[in-house]
Write a structure and sequence with these properties.
The complex is a heterodimer. By secondary structure, chain A is an alpha/beta fold. Chain A has a domain of 265 residues: Alpha-Beta Complex (Amidase signature (AS) enzymes). In chain A, the strands form two sheets. Chain A has an eleven-stranded mixed sheet, sandwiched between helices. Chain A has a two-stranded antiparallel ribbon with strand order 8-9. Chain B has a domain of 46 residues: Histone, subunit A (Orthogonal Bundle), CATH 1.10.20. In chain B, 31% of the residues lie in helices and 4% in strands. In chain B, a hairpin with a 2-residue loop joins strand 1 and strand 2. The longest helix of chain B has 18 residues. The radius of gyration of chain B is 23 Å and the shape is flat. The chains are: A alpha/beta, B mainly alpha. At the A-B interface, helix 10, helix 11, helix 12, helix 13 and helix 14 of A face helix 1 and helix 2 of B.
Chain lengths: 531, 106
């Protein structure tokens, strides 16, 4: 076991006891990256993948080794001087390249921002750095976060799943989940708009947290859908995720939607167990909907048995530890999450993408123009890939004056119904009085590269079990819960009431303890099997 | 179901979106838009009472749980040059763009 395989909290203890230095931890992390990651995504590299490329993870767009070494040296100096180095001192982490970090390229995995060096640092990143964590680089994602596989990134090769490199890592925080799953770093900062932290976490066998909307500031996050976007942690353990959320959460004068509610001390209650908690199961999360690839008609079927069994097995374990499992909790509007998301997210995305015009920053087409409108059109055509274009066009269509009532306002009212499902389930005076809902995270385990990409409807339905939490604003966590017959991780999801992340951490930690000796916990991802 | 986004509607959208597509891109995008609309039409099957309000956010904005607006104070940005240096073309501190076309309003 190398230093980079330790958890974040273990590393902070080793560091404080002076058993290791921050520089030693960092070098272990950088060596792992060099060993398993392969060439970073770029606009200009060969698009032909070699056999060697196909065995690598390709999580990164930008490595920041020199900046990281300077940070690690400063941590070591503080420790030797007897100064407090911060709660996450010396812990290497990656940042999804959708966050601005001063003086680094902040690309959103898009050609249109490929030359953009942010003049300021996003609040969650700033807080990680202040806590002593060491940023080793910016990791890949779907272009502007638009996707669930990372294949839409303009920076190729796109990330691959460390468990099986012919599979996608999920998305859009695929680089984050892949970098944590491959043992490159213990922590990564991602974002979740429809499941973009939880789905790749499930695919890569790691923990992913979508905090309550407003728990973490969005300042410095390049926006997709502003009413849905949530920055959050990707980690290898529940405790590490809790420690990271502790650091990045809280009010921010730069973001009026960041909640002023205090961030609780998550680690002080995380070992309190689940005795007396009411945890719900809903039949509406055990059926999946997907479009027929030929006709486009929506079909419905039961979950794959291995995924359903993982959820039911988790429920049994939690019951054995004293939780009360409440069956048949109705969440009837779950199936409308994706159709409503197709409308709401596109309207918000189209609005946010209008700022990319080749005038103030980012790419401008190099053709010569004597007409501003022509410059806009050519710049946006050259700079955006197909997925941003698709979202702009749909956003403009469904928000047009003649269609707004039929589509946009209707979707916003459906959102109210989805929110109501959760309010009813968690109502302390209601019939169910849940502390959390236990569900699968994804309808499938990681799918093969190129198997879905291009079919924008089928790809979107990969998020059908995660997107309701984004509409409702409630927190969610995905936990590793087994390995399927193909050797791929299975994720389960816990959804909680507003700002009740501490409950999710308690349940997640109890589940971790109950399964720590199970054989699937000992299986390593493919890229680590010879190490 | 016939295609809802016809070629004519699509071209209008492309103009509004300030895009300039090649034929292959246009064909792919129009097909995907129509496929997505099939999924979106599922929303029409939901019975919605007149009194169901819209939700612009999941978590309600309540005064006790929301940040108070900050004072509307002008604060000088510490590094204006860093911002201007991001612009593709500047001249004497001004951002330069091609001519803005003039359109006669009818």
């Amino acid at each position: 076991m190398e230093l980079c395989d330790y958890t974040a909290l273990e590393l902070t203890q080793l560091l404080r006891k002076k058993e290791v230095s921050a520089v030693e931890i960092l070098e272990s992390s950088l060596n792992r990256i060099t060993k398993v990651d392969g060439r970073p995504g770029s606009l200009t590299g060969s698009t032909q993948l070699t056999d060697e490329d196909k065995k690598k993870v390709h999580a990164f767009i930008t490595r920041t080794d020199d900046i990281a070494r300077a940070q690690a040296q400063e941590i070591d100096r503080k420790i030797n001087a007897g100064e407090d180095p911060g709660p996450l001192a010396g812990v290497p982490f990656t940042v999804k390249d959708i966050f601005c970090v001063k003086d680094t390229y902040s690309t959103a995995a898009s050609k249109i921002l490929s030359n953009f060096k942010a003049p300021y640092t996003a609040t969650p990143v700033e807080r990680m750095l202040k806590a002593g964590a060491v940023m080793v680089g910016k990791v890949n994602l779907d272009e502007f976060t638009y996707g669930s596989s990372n294949e839409s990134s303009a920076f190729q090769p796109s990330p691959r799943n460390p468990w099986k490199t012919d599979r996608v890592p999920g998305g859009s925080s695929g680089g984050s989940a892949a970098s944590v799953g491959a043992g490159e770093v213990p922590l990564s900062l991602g974002t979740d708009t429809a499941g973009s932290i939880r789905q790749p976490a499930a695919f890569c066998g790691v923990v992913g947290v979508k905090p309550t909307y407003g728990r973490v500031s969005r300042y410095g996050l390049i926006a997709f859908a502003s009413s849905l976007d949530c920055p959050g942690p990707v980690a290898r353990t529940v405790s590490d995720a809790a420690a990271m959320l502790q650091v990045i959460g809280g009010a921010d004068s730069h973001d009026a939607t960041a909640s002023p509610q205090d961030v609780p001390d998550y680690l002080s209650t995380i070992e309190d167990g689940v005795k007396g908690m009411r945890i719900g199961l809903s039949p509406d999360y055990f059926r999946i909907t997907y479009p027929d690839p030929k006709t486009g008609d929506l079909l419905s079927q039961a979950l794959p048995p291995e995924i359903e069994n993982a959820v039911r097995s988790a429920a049994e374990k939690l019951a054995a530890m004293g939780a009360e499992i409440i069956e048949d909790v109705p969440m009837p509007n779950t199936r409308f999450g994706i159709p409503a998301y197709f409308v709401i997210s596109r309207v918000e995305a189209a609005s946010n993408l209008h700022r990319y015009d080749g005038v103030k920053y980012g790419l401008r087409s190099q053709q010569s123009f004597n007409d501003l409108n022509k410059m806009y059109r050519f710049t946006r055509n050259e700079g955006f890939g197909l997925q941003p274009k698709l979202r702009i066009l749909m956003g403009m269509y469904v928000s047009a004056a003649q269609y707004s009532e039929q589509y946009y306002r209707r979707a916003l009212r459906v959102r109210t119904l989805i929110r109501k499902d959760f309010e009813t389930a968690y109502d302390p005076q209601g019939k169910y009085r849940l502390d959390a809902l236990l569900t699968p995270t994804t309808p499938t385990t990681a799918f093969e590269m190129a198997a879905v990409y291009g079919d924008s409807v089928l790809m979107q339905y990969a998020d059908q079990l995660t997107v309701p939490a984004n509409h409702a604003g409630v927190p969610g966590i995905s936990l590793p819960a087994g390995i399927d017959a193909a050797g791929l991780p299975i994720g389960i999801q816990l959804l909680g009431a507003d700002f009740n992340e501490s409950t999710l951490f308690r349940i997640g930690r109890a589940f971790e303890k109950a399964t720590e000796n199970e054989s699937w916990r000992q299986v390593k991802p493919q890229v680590l099997q010879d190490s | 179901m016939s295609e809802q986004i016809t070629q004519e509607v699509f071209e209008h959208l492309v103009g509004l979106a300030a895009l300039q597509l090649n034929p292959d891109q246009a064909e792919y995008l129009r097909k995907q838009l129509n496929n997505q609309l099939k999924a979106i039409h599922e929303l029409e099957a939901i019975p919605l009472d007149e009194d169901i309000p819209i939700s612009l956010h999941g978590v309600p904005y309540e005064e006790s749980g929301s940040a108070k607006p900050r004072e509307d104070e002008w604060i000088k940005y510490p590094d204006v040059k860093a911002l201007l240096d991001q612009a593709p073309q500047i001249e004497d501190g001004y951002i330069v763009v091609p001519d803005i076309p003039h359109t006669e309003l009818k």
